[in-house]
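Recap quiz, item 2
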Amino acid sequence: MSGADRGMVRLALRITYAYRVSVLTTAGLLVVEVFLLRMIWTSVYGGQSSVDGFRLDALIVYLTLVNLQMFLMTTPLAAHIHSRVRTGVVFFDFVRPIGYPRQMLGIQAGTTLGQASLLLPAIPVAFLAGAISAPADAVAALAYVVSLILGYGIAVLLALLLGMAAFWTIEINGITLFYRFVSQFFAGTMIPLTFFPGPLRTLADLLPFRFLGYVPAAIYVGVLDQAEIPRTLATQAVWMVVLAGLFGLTWRRAQRRLVVQGG
Amino acid sequence: MFQRASIRGAMQYKVNLWVGIATGVAYQGTGFAFVWVVLQRFPSLAGWTLAQVAFLYGLRLVAHATWLVPMNALVGIEWLVREGAFDRYLLRPLNPLVQLLTTRPMRVGGLGDLLTGIGILAAAAALADVRWTPEVIGLAALAILGGALIEGGIQLAIASLSFRLLTIFQISHFVDDIFSRFGSYPLKVFGGTAEWILTWVVPVAFVAYVPASVILDQQMRLAPWAALLPPAIGIVIFVGAYRFWERQLRHYQSTGN
């Protein structure tokens, strides 16, 4: 990692820290959300200890994890790219000595470091508001880590691709926010995908958002069948490769497009 | 070339407008989709059916939009104050708050909420067999007005803090989120302590839960006249908030900004 890489990471870290009030507020709302979900789900279970194979205590751990995961997977990249395109300064990003993808990864790394450190004090509170337990078993624990890392990669790539759209479309301000709500819903942050009705479940299984929340968390609490784990992780890996390839194709075209339009 | 640019600009504005509304609908929509999906699978939430929860959800949303649409300008106040742009309003003879609320271009924030809220409320009322007698219409109207005064008043008080603190946006956002999250579900789900706090400390319960319970004839310890509490509490809160605003404004003016 060169000095320039470290510079990008440090910059992103500083910017995240500058927005610490906002990040901390979000962390606070995360705790509130986990509490709210726990109470609602406990209420609808109505005394039953398990529904559709999902035990209530496992469900609350799932909800706690999924919301923490989504917090860490929040990425500024889409909004960042849109803003740079809108103001025209994106041109400078393309002529820097570090390649464009590496710059974006540097920004993401710095942001995640900053967000994670600000989240740290909220984690035990989140566990209190919700619940935490040990992973279902050693296999689940290992698979969880792998799934989480792949999920993070998918989240970042999706954000990058959304950012790339800024080079082709009319500038749409609200699209990143809209995207966040949709992705959070289909990641299963409020409802595990197992409870989605038929057609909605089919849709959710086609979309990659489940890898950001539902899939890792379901592996952790043991809801995902052990036999299914290898295939699921493989699917995640394939998604990552495909998305990375798409981004690889797109950013160069974006750069060319910018030059042609006299950026 | 200029024509193309201006058409592009106009198109962009319209696209932004629709995306703004769509985003608002998506935000409220995912909250409501949660309720909808859960109550497809489970029979009820603390004794409230899907239609009843939807009614509560819609009622709260309409109350929220009722203060947000006219008072949307409050959202950006901290930037106005920080940049000194707010001082303009102090130079003119008209009430600064009125100026703030009327001279800023309308933002689409509240419209999405209003549309979604009315839609959900109407549909839910039909499904929950709510008969719109004059009495019920009156109760609902009082509820919406009361809820708007309560939420709007609290947000006005928070906005007043922008004269003292550098940033209040996060406080405003956090409080708004609490009202939005907890106000849309039957409060008894949250258990004794939380329910008490959300009724008597932070009056979330009175924005929609109490009036909805009365209209839907849900068993409540309070008598039907409890539906009159929201506007009463709302007026008290709003008047108090306005006095607070005036006091902060006087302080701001006197410290020679």
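Chain A is about 75% helix and 0% strand.
The longest strand of chain A covers residues 50-51.
End of item.
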